[in-house]
Amino acid sequence: MSRDQVSDRFATLTFERSIAAPVATLYAAWISPAARAVWAATAPSVTVEFLEADSRVGGREVSLCKVAGEPDLRVEGGWLDLVPEARTVGYEVVSKEGDRQSAALVTADFAAEGETSRIKVTVQLASLAADMADGYRQGFNAGIDNLRAVAERTLLLQRVIKAPVPVVWGAWMNSESLPKWWGPDGFSCRTSRIDLRAGGEWVFDMIGPDGTVFPNHHKYGAMIPEARLDYTLHWGENGPKHADAWATFEDQDGATKVTLGMVMATAKEYHDAKGFGAVELGLQTLGKLAKIIGAE
């Protein structure tokens, strides 16, 4: 193999975008598996299925990239370093029909720019089969454009609750306690059925202080006990989906940092939700969670 052939196998690619979202929201949309599942498909003809996803240092990700009529691409990767709202370092290995196609080190740097933020992604690529650089350029450009659209319609709520992670997780994943605190101040829940596990669901009505009934249906996806749960929110039983959501639970010196993220289905739904005070109402909900476990 000639020196030119060897050098052609390696490339360093960079991608930058300015995004109209706070840096905390952009960072969460970048690493959270529920959000990644929304923006990872690079074209309407492409679907991405996550088989494993653990967005913690040392965590592993496995996904299948599918295009009709073509062999699936299997992407195996993991997280090597995570500095919240500043930097992530991860790796990925792409295979097709059992043959490795490429390996890459992927570094993302984040910067706040007032009410907006910036992401710079650096990919250090080794092509193990055919030259993969052009495919990576196309894929990352499309993916980061999708990420921008997702981050700009993501609501992010955070609260530190003065109780250990197992206690907070237990109050969330208990079919008796969850309906007692879910919803803003003055709201109550009337449950039709509830099954709090991966693949389970919660069908319920949220009832406002004036008696207005809001039908809801939560469908639960992946869960890592005492760390993360993913779910989708629907307008009534099997109704239209209005958000892909996740909740994470992080230990902070014996307290728990709860992060609740929601990628709204459309930009209009995002702006409508912001307009009626979804962030403030969501923080009231997390306040009720703190109250029910005696950790206000």
Uncertain ranges: 1-6
Give the % helix.
25-40%
The first-level CATH class of the largest domain is given as Alpha Beta
Counted up, domains total 2
Total number of helices: 8
Q: How would the global form be characterised?
A: globular
Q: Strand fraction band?
A: over 45%
Explain how this protein is built.
It is a single chain. Helices cover 26% and strands 47% of the residues. The chain has helices at 3-8, 23-31, 33-39, 133-151, 165-172, 178-181, 267-275, 278-292; strands at 10-19, 46-53, 60-67, 73-83, 87-96, 99-113, 116-127, 154-161, 188-194, 201-207, 213-224, 228-235, 241-252, 255-264. Helix 2 crosses helix 3 (33-39) and helix 3 (33-39) crosses helix 4. The protein has 296 residues and is α+β, with helices and mostly antiparallel strands.
Core attributes:
about 300 residues; Alpha-D-Glucose-1,6-Bisphosphate, Chain A, domain 4; 2 domains; seven-stranded antiparallel sheet; 14 strands; disordered N terminus
Short summary of the structure?
The protein has 296 residues and is α+β, with helices and mostly antiparallel strands. The protein is built from eight helices and 14 strands.
Secondary structure layout:
Layout lengths: L2 H6 L1 E10 L3 H9 L1 H7 L6 E8 L6 E8 L5 E11 L3 E10 L2 E15 L2 E12 L5 H19 L2 E8 L3 H8 L5 H4 L6 E7 L6 E7 L5 E12 L3 E8 L5 E12 L2 E10 L2 H9 L2 H15 L4
